[in-house]
Amino acid sequence: MFGSATADTSGTVRLVQPVSSASWAWRRTLKDENADTAAVRQAVDRTTQAAQKIGTTLYEKSRAEQSAGAPAGGTADDSSEDEVVDAEIVDEDKPEAA
């Protein structure tokens, strides 16, 4: 499941591989009846650190694209469609109370 990377680019595989390895090590640690709390915590920390590298890389890539002028999501024309209008709904069939 984690080891297959048929449609991914090498950069993505390079990011995911440490998480996959760390998660398998974590599973092995959990199955080990002699593993203590410190060993489990260390395995969890390694997995978390590897996963955080993915988040950091995605964040940096997003920031680089934004600074280069590329839209982060959607098109540049989307902002004009989201114009906010201040309005009040009035029921014209209902008589006004005095």
Radius of gyration over alpha carbons?
25 Å
Distance between the termini: 70 Å
Quote the average pLDDT. Answer: 77
Principal-axes geometry comes out as elongated
Profile the largest sheet.
Answer: none
Structural class: mainly alpha
Provide the succession of SSEs. HHH
- Give the helix tally: 3
Kindly estimate the percentage of residues that lie in beta strands according to DSSP: under 5%
* Helicity level: 55-70%
β-strand number: 0
Poorly predicted segments: 1-8
Describe this entry's structure for a reader.
With 98 residues, the protein is mostly helical. 58% of the residues lie in helices and 0% in strands. Helix 1 runs antiparallel to helix 2. The N terminus is likely disordered.
Keywords:
98 residues, 58% helix, single chain, elongated, mainly alpha, disordered N terminus, 3 helices
How is this fold's topology laid out?
Blueprint: H1 10-31, H2 37-67, H3 78-81
Helix pairs in contact: 1-2
Brief description of this entry?
The chain has 98 residues and is an all-alpha fold.
